[in-house]
Design goal:
Elements: H1 2-18, H2 26-33, H3 47-78, H4 83-103, H5 128-139, H6 146-158, H7 163-186, H8 188-197, H9 202-222, H10 225-233, H11 242-247, E1 257-259, E2 265-267, E3 275-280, H12 286-301, E4 309-315, H13 330-339, E5 346-348, H14 353-357, E6 365-369, E7 375-380, H15 385-396
Parallel strand pairs: 3-4, 4-5
Antiparallel strand pairs: 1-2, 3-6, 6-7
Helix pairs in contact: 1-6, 1-7, 1-9, 1-10, 3-5, 3-6, 3-7, 4-6, 4-9, 6-7, 6-9
Length: 399
């Protein structure tokens, strides 16, 4: 989901900063951070001190967000086999929040009320430590404009393939919020005048945020993020066009030896001289299921791996030794393949080392390895057979 989720989350962070429930109080916070509780217009502290305290404030904001993200990612990992359902249900919730922000915001509803922690941090002498605590407390006081946007980010984090990718989304949201805050800290003496001159524009930020939430919600429910990621990757969903693949320096494909669902050893190096199509997937992944018939058709079309093209799936089954892996047990994965008529070999990456070696952070992901053992192209997200065939064509030129 990274190709489409990352920029959306970054924009959500920016819109959260610009929202009417955050931006108007920023000058007051800048005044505190500068050491002048009378407001940012006083400007008694040096700019360096203000920026240093602002950076500590942003670290506090980020810390609070990561605490929330920890819970969301833990939920997603605990229910990894239902991640598709989590994404769909979360999408419905995000759509409802977006509709509320577009239609009902500002009418005195329950979500319009501000909640604050009973902490009088402004009475303490300002220092980076106090600024850090203030940022942490400030994060939990955000209401209507920020709440729906943050909820959508947490849903995305919970439905991410790995905890790392979920935390990356939280980090992008924090970055989108903190970058304009730091920029305003650099010009704190002019921040108030700037905000007063554009006060009317704040009302449009709520509508823009509502539209963005609707987009995120629809993408989550429909599963369209995989297709968009593929389209953003370029022709045929590949990370490189044929001409680029012929000239660019290609990384060597990490070798591995794993056992498939039939107990047969599968070694990448054993297929040197052939094109190998590696498909990383999971049983709970809706987008993976959609492309499996095409992968099976390719497997059969190329002689069940007896020809010059090898089709090989890679799964990450859990076990008593690795209970937090991305999928069910090896037996459950094998049963799933049998039930869905998938006869192509699927290597069982029980330790997740192969997933890490190929930087798999979302599902599905397809990597084409050329006859020379280099990575010829990558498709992130679900793809059609024609896209896979295009990838095979690129890989054949790597000899």
């Amino acid at each position: 989901m990274g190709a489409i989720s990352a920029p959306l989350v970054l924009v959500e962070g920016l819109l959260s900063f610009l929202s009417p429930c955050v931006l108007p109080v920023i000058p007051l916070y800048l005044g505190y951070l500068a050491g002048d509780v009378a407001g940012a217009e006083g400007g008694k502290a040096s700019r360096a001190r203000t920026v240093a305290n602002a950076m500590a404030f942003c670290l506090g904001v980020a810390a609070a967000l990561f605490v929330l993200g920890l819970g969301a990612s833990a939920l997603g990992q605990a229910f990894s086999q239902s991640r598709g359902a989590i994404s769909a249900v979360g999408g419905v919730v995000v759509i409802a929040l977006g509709a509320y922000q577009l239609v009902a915001y500002g009418r005195g509803g329950a979500l319009d009320r501000e909640r604050r922690l009973p902490l009088a941090l402004d009475r303490l002498a300002m220092s980076p430590l106090v600024a850090l605590a203030m940022g942490f407390a400030f994060s939990f006081a955000w209401t209507p404009c920020v709440g729906p946007a943050l909820a959508s980010v947490l849903v995305l984090a919970a439905s991410s393939a790995t905890a790392g990718s979920g935390f990356a989304l939280i980090g992008l949201y924090a970055l989108g919020f903190c970058l304009p805050f730091l920029a305003m800290a650099l010009v704190a003496d002019r921040a108030v005048a700037l905000l007063r001159g554009h006060a009317r524009a704040l009302s449009h930020v709520v509508q823009a945020g509502g539209v963005l939430l609707l987009v995120v919600g629809v993408l989550l429910v429909s599963g369209a993020t995989g297709g968009i990621s593929k389209a953003l990757a370029g022709p045929s969903g590949s990370a490189a066009s044929p001409s680029q693949a012929a000239t660019a320096a290609r990384p060597a494909a990490p070798d591995f030896t794993l056992v498939d669902q039939n107990g047969v050893s599968q070694s990448l190096s054993a297929y040197r001289g052939k094109v190998v199509l590696l498909n990383f997937w999971a049983t709970w992944c809706t987008y993976c299921k959609r492309e499996m018939p095409d992968i099976q058709a390719m497997y059969e079309g190329y002689g069940s791996n007896a020809g010059d093209v090898v089709v090989l799936g890679v799964a990450n089954p859990s076990s008593s030794q690795y209970p937090n892996n991305a999928d069910g047990s090896q037996e459950e994965v094998a049963a799933f393949l049998s039930e869905n008529g998938c006869a192509y070999p699927v290597a069982m990456d029980a330790t997740k080392e192969v997933f890490k070696a190929y930087s798999v952070t979302s599902y599905p992901k397809t990597v084409a390895v050329g006859p020379d053992g280099t990575i010829a192209g990558v498709i992130s997200g679900a793809a059609s057979r024609s896209a896979f065939e295009g990838l095979v064509g690129i890989a054949r030129s790597c000899s």
